[in-house]
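Hi all, long-time lurker, first post. I run a small reading group and we've been trying to get comfortable going from sequence to structure in the token notation. Rather than ask abstract questions, I figured I'd post a concrete chain and ask someone more experienced to write out its structure so we can walk through it together at our next meeting. Sequence below, copied exactly:
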Amino acid sequence: MTGPEHYMEAERLLAKYGNGYVLPETAGKLAAAQVHATLALAAATAMAAYGETMPPPDGQAWDIVAGVEQ
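-- Answer (accepted) --
Happy to help. Here is the structure in token form:
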């Protein structure tokens, strides 16, 4: 799973289960969202070492997730 995919999965899980209440049946899903968000952050941080030009496919995927126009 790429960094952008982790980011999108975190957003999906939070949208579905992050309603402000942590119920026992949703706690695991919210924890998974946190893990995906952390992995996305780690991937973005690692990719920052490349400067402004990230190699494909991650560079293009981050542009799409971030809404950067090509």
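A couple of things your group might point at:
The radius of gyration is 14 Å.
The chain has a mean pLDDT of 80.
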